[in-house]
Design goal:
By secondary structure, the chain is mostly beta strands. It has 1 helix and 7 strands. 4% of the residues lie in helices and 48% in strands. It has a 6-stranded antiparallel barrel with strand order 2-3-4-7-6-5.
Length: 100
């Protein structure tokens, strides 16, 4: 009998709870939502309108006391629209180790 692992057991990197503003574009519309937690590998974005799984998009992550936001490429790896806390899980896509 195989056991199913929970989300936290599947993660490669530990998550830190934090709320940061996230700006991104879907088609011709701009969105501003907030993270719930973040790690080196990805983040959870709280939103009532998650993007489809597999969607890659560029988003800007506003960090306090930093002049310019971080621009990151991400991919939606899971989403939950009809949940108590709707949102989407994002995996960061880095162009190099130095970007990580």
């Amino acid at each position: 009998m195989s056991e199913q692992k929970s989300g936290s057991e599947l993660r490669t990197h530990g998550r830190a709870p934090i709320e940061l503003k996230v700006d991104y574009k879907k088609l011709n519309s701009f969105f501003a939502d907030y993270t719930k937690n973040i790690s080196k590998g990805g983040t959870f974005i709280k939103t009532k309108k998650p993007l489809p799984i597999g969607t890659r998009f560029l988003f800007k992550l506003t960090v306090p006391h930093r002049e310019a936001p971080f621009e990151l490429l991400g991919e939606v790896v899971w989403s939950k629209a009809d949940a108590e806390e709707p949102g989407m899980g994002i995996r960061f896509i880095y162009s190099s180790e130095s970007q990580r």
